[in-house]
Write a structure and sequence with these properties.
The chain is built from 7 helices and 9 strands; from the N terminus they run βαααβαβαβαββββαβ. The chain is of the alpha+beta class.
Length: about 200
Amino acid sequence: MVKAVWTANGWVPVIALFVAGLAFNSLESIRQLAEGNREELKKIAESKGTATHYSNAKEFYEALTSAVKEADFEVRATYFRRVPPTYDKAARDYFRACISWVQAKSHRKLLRVMPEPATPAMREWVEEQREHSKRRLPKGAYKLKYIQIDVTNVLSIAVIDEKTVFCAITMDDDVVRGYSLTSPDLGNYYKQYHQMLLNSGKEVF
């Protein structure tokens, strides 16, 4: 892991990478989003925060699991992969931690967005998540929606309590590169982005 403090100049490439993650939207939608949030982007560019880079999936998921366990009220996440998160112990631990976390207190929310499963393995995993939402959690504590998206080289995110953001870039089905950002300004912006995805999604449970 490599940690760095990002200043006004340092946020610029992060924002550029974030915008690149919206590539599945139309250019017109991106233009409208940028215009509507120009002042907010200016505030983000001037903010300070901490960025941590992770060299492999194990480091990324271990850090994300720790952040989820320390969260208070809300975890928002996307899962833009073509394979279920059962290939790696750190990934499995993260998804188990999400269920345990949201189960522990009634005010907590877990909100996830993903593409509609294209393989039997992915459909089986979604059904497992559905069972968790029915048997172990208060109604509405865990929500999952499908969106239409090409998962090739798409940026996946997790927003923890609106202040810490984890971003993962999947180069193929096995390679994950990621980083995390700690900043209330950025956290709020990524929350809005996630809510936009959630609002456009098809409800699964």
